[in-house]
Every structure is written in structure tokens, then in C-alpha cells.
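@here heads up, posting the sequence + SMILES for the S-adenosylmethionine run so it's all in one place. Ping me if the SMILES looks off, I pulled it from an old spreadsheet.
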Amino acid sequence: MSQDRIAWAVDVVAPQASEQLLEIGCGHGVAVTKVCERLVDGAILAIDRSAAMIAAAERRNAEYVAGGRANLQVANLHALDPGHRRFDKAFAIRVGVFTRSDPTREFAALLRLLKPEGRLFLFHDEPSTGADEVAARLEGAVLRHRWNLEARLTHVFDGGELACVIARPPS
Ligand SMILES: C[S@@+](CC[C@H](N)C(=O)[O-])C[C@H]1O[C@@H](n2cnc3c(N)ncnc32)[C@H](O)[C@@H]1O
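bot reply: prediction finished. Complex C-alpha cells:
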């Protein structure tokens, strides 16, 4: 995924200096770097179920890991146990479970992980599918799990489109 898309996604997430963030499926950790550039005393936990991806993300973000701003962990979202830590915002960029399969376990985990007033940001794109259709699928997943839809966005740029939904946990 191009850095333009990730830059837009991080702009939408809009990390604030003191926030606690969770990234699901961080891959090489490009978004982690962009988030850490905005944090002061906040922090990000970025997970990926692939050890190779976490190793790459750690190399890329070595400075932020050493400073405590970023914590990278091999984990599958549905089984993540961050102790008592709760997040202001959670986001996922191009993590297929939210559009292609049944994300019931993942939404249940996010309910445990987010603060009650927290926000979930799901970004996705598919080469052969328009962003409106991808956004509708993301929205369907959010509503089926009784989360509250706050916004549905699409972003068009050279060579692609990215869809995003923003949701709040059920109260
Ligand atoms: C297509 S890559 C996208 C990586 C990065 N977010 C990006 O946009 O460049 C999807 C990543 O999510 C990870 N992943 C998929 N499902 C996951 C899950 N349930 N929990 C944690 N990581 C997951 C995969 O291992 C993979 O690295």
C-alpha cells in the first residue's frame, strides 16, 4: 500500500499527543511511524499475527520502540490480552477479516480493548471494487455487530480509492 494512503488514514485517525492507540495488522509499521511523530506522552500498541511483519515494523520504528512510544507485538486481534490497558482509538488498514469473513470475535475483542468513549477506524481497499462498495461492506459489518456508525468516508487518488468507516462501541 502506498504511503499516500497510509498518510490519509493517519490524518483521519488524527492521533492526539496523549492518546493511547491500537493498530491491528500493522504490517511493516509505516502507520506506526506516522502516529509516533504526533505523540508526546501517548503511545501506540501495534499488533500483527505475522512475526516477520512485527520484526520489520520493529526495525522501522526502533527509535520509537526504544523511547516507549511504540510497542509492537505478535498477536491475533481476537486473542489479544493487553492487561488493563484500554485504548482511545483503534484502527486497521487493509485487514481482510473486516470485509471478507465473519469478524464477530474481532468486534468482541475491540469492545474489551476500547474505552467506552473510544473510536474504531476501519480502512480498506480492493483493486477491482469501488470504494463505495467496500465502504458499504465495512458499514454492514459495523452495524451487524451493533456498533454505532459515526462516519463513512472514501478517498480517491492516483491509482486507487480507500474506504473508511468510523464507529463507536455499542453502549
Ligand atoms: C494487507 S496487510 C496490511 C498491512 C498494513 N496495515 C498496510 O496497510 O500496509 C494485512 C496485515 O494484517 C495482518 N493481520 C490480518 N489479520 C489479523 C488479525 N486478526 N490480527 C492481527 N493481524 C492481522 C496480516 O498478518 C498482515 O500483515
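MO: Helices lie at 3-13, 30-36, 51-60, 62-66, 97-100, 104-113, 131-144.
MO: One more: The two ends are 34 Å apart (CA to CA).
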